[in-house]
């Protein structure tokens, strides 16, 4: 239960962490600019970037180190009704304009917009742009004449666009459209220019009408003269064309007769050629039909032979191959089983021998440690160390000597004691002494081992005389 609860808590924490990470991945809509500020790297000059602007994409916002905001790309209409603007001729004019501006998506302009417009409402941006537009519009009007402003509207709009675009770019905006509705001045100069132009247009129209009337009378007389000439020429041409037509008709009849004869001959020739080709084509087609029949029969026989061969292969060769593969697989399986069994036995023997070797190594190591401790206890005197070991084993040695005669069964001993034995001993005493001498004494055991029994343990070795 505790493990299940722990798993649930871990899953919830993991889900919340994943959701938090996803919430920091921000996508930028097409009508906005994503502005990331905080730690955004360094610019080309080596200084820190004030912001990173993204249009049409997405970015991951690092918690604590970064934050984000959006700039709206919706166009902003601005009414700019300029009044009493002084022109180059010192004439004050009224220029009502309607501008449409918006935040630029150029990389450099986006950075300017992020630095100067981020956090401003559309109304504040509109007021800021209006001030710039009014100033640049007055500047353009001051460099142009009334005639240029009124007559050459394209030049006026180009000048306005260039000056306004340059200033708007400094705050990250761009000019989308400009529309000048009407230009008026308080002195009536533009109206007078309009009346003068209208009068000129009316006079030009009247002059054109008079000239067209004169051209009409002259044209009528010339038309009547040309009409009489064309009638005479037409009658003459009609007679000539009639004679030419008659001659052409006779010539055409002769040519037609010759063409008919040639056509009949060509027709008969083509009919004969067509008949010949038809007969040849029939024979060729018959030959091709027989050839295709023979090829089809040969192909059928080939297919039948392939089918018979495939049938024989499926009935004989395939079962043999299957038996062969089965035998190979069984042999390989048996060989693998034997290899595994032999490997297992070898591993068992190796493990047993390794365990025995470890045991012997451990025993010898412990004995070596014990011998080292004995030598150390004997102050590194090996002779004394051997004596200590022998002292420790004396009970076992004595027990061994006793065991040698312990199990001798003597039912009855008869002793004739002569009382006069060599050495002053009785016969009984000599018997017991000989019995004890049959057991190897300790001194002999030590001598066989190449060691000397201490004197206090009964060493009866005669002392060597001093030199």
Oligomer: single chain
Helix content: 55-70%
What's the rounded overall pLDDT mean? 76
- The general outline is flat
Share of residues in strands: 5-15%
Q: Which sheet architecture does the biggest sheet show? A: 4 strands, antiparallel
Using the coordinates above, name the CATH class of the domain at 74-187.
Alpha Beta
Q: How is this fold's topology laid out?
A:
Elements: H1 2-23, E1 25-27, E2 32-38, E3 52-54, E4 58-60, E5 66-72, E6 76-86, E7 92-103, H2 107-116, H3 122-142, H4 146-151, H5 153-169, E8 173-180, E9 184-185, H6 189-377, H7 382-406, H8 427-437, H9 442-448
Antiparallel strand pairs: 1-4, 2-3, 2-5, 6-7, 7-8, 7-9
Task: Describe the overall structure.
With 467 residues, the chain is of the alpha+beta class. Among the domains are: 24-73; 74-187, Band 7 domain (Tetrahydropterin Synthase, Chain A, 2-Layer Sandwich); 382-457, no CATH class. Helix content is 66%, strand content 12%. Strands 6, 7, 8 and 9 form a four-stranded antiparallel β-sheet that branches. It has a three-stranded antiparallel β-sheet with strand order 3-2-5, with helices on one face. A two-stranded antiparallel sheet has the order 1-4. Helix 3 (122-142) crosses helix 5 and helix 6 (189-377) packs across helix 7.
